[in-house]
Amino acid sequence: MIPAINATSYDSKYFYGFDYLRIISCFFIVGWHLKLFGWDNILINPESHATIPTFADVIYANLFLMAVPLFLLISIFLFIHNRKNKPDYFKKRIFYLIIVYLFWTVIYSIIYQNGLKTVNILNPAYIMSGAGSVGYFLFSLIVLVVLTELLIDIRKYLSENQFVVLNIFLFCFSLFLLIFRIPLSNMTGYLGIYFLSLWSPINFLPYPFIAFIIMNFFEKDKLVKIPWKLFAILTFIIIVISATEWYVLPDKVHYLIDGMSITPYARLSIVVSSILVFLLFLGITNESPRIIKKFSELTMGIFLIHSIIIFKLPEIWPELYMNLTNMNQIAITFIFVVSASAIVTYCIKKVGIV
Fold first, then answer.
1. In a domain, 297, yes or no
2. Is 15 in a helix, a strand, or coil?
């Protein structure tokens, strides 16, 4: 089980805001998979090009889907922070992540794929998607940690300003890949799936670069609190981008790839929104209550386990998804899934299985 990464660094800095952000992201993930605000429309309807997005569509597409990018951004930022005075930190961290990824991929294969005998374990899609599960997060995290370590090695040969410029360039290039992912997918033939699928690490390429940029300002105490002007500018940009996306999306390409009419993570609005929310919580300096810290330590486990509980619930409760139009029913189910996932996570951490 992956615990929440300890935010203690060489200077004993603890990022209290990340405790809250992990919990919120955890709720977003469960809420998205349980359709907390009811069934969406545009997200899953390939014929709904002319349909105005519903409240649920906007909440899911522009709010809840920030959860995975936020988890990744927190993890990469803390990896950079902890890596500074710990030369062996990368080896220990990457080994741990690989073990956890393999463990959960086997579990997901047994549950979702009817065991390892029925799947092609050498299939890149199977590997990257974590056996067609939320395990794609772990694979993407491994890729991003390796990329981050590579950037740390490159940093030795550059001045501080050169390294910042490099990350700005790479951040812009990664956005280019996301914005033009459909033409690029058409140009690359069978490799196009890696530009379009929700489980592709390409979706999350901007986050190591922006993490380095944020860290550079943070270390100089220039970004302890986000300036209101920057907040206003980013908010305006997010609104404009989101409105533009809703006007030109959905795209049937994504429906064919992932069963959704719009891509979950490769949208520019998700990238910018995740950065803004991250900056807001980075600026929290008040110590979080003990219960918040303890629950925050369970969030990654909840993220990895909740989908299994949701998958198995209909076997016990066949009418579950037929009743999800009732808001009280949805709320009770949400609380149950979060609570059950938290309990299982706590037990696994106590036993020390992983």
1. yes
2. coil
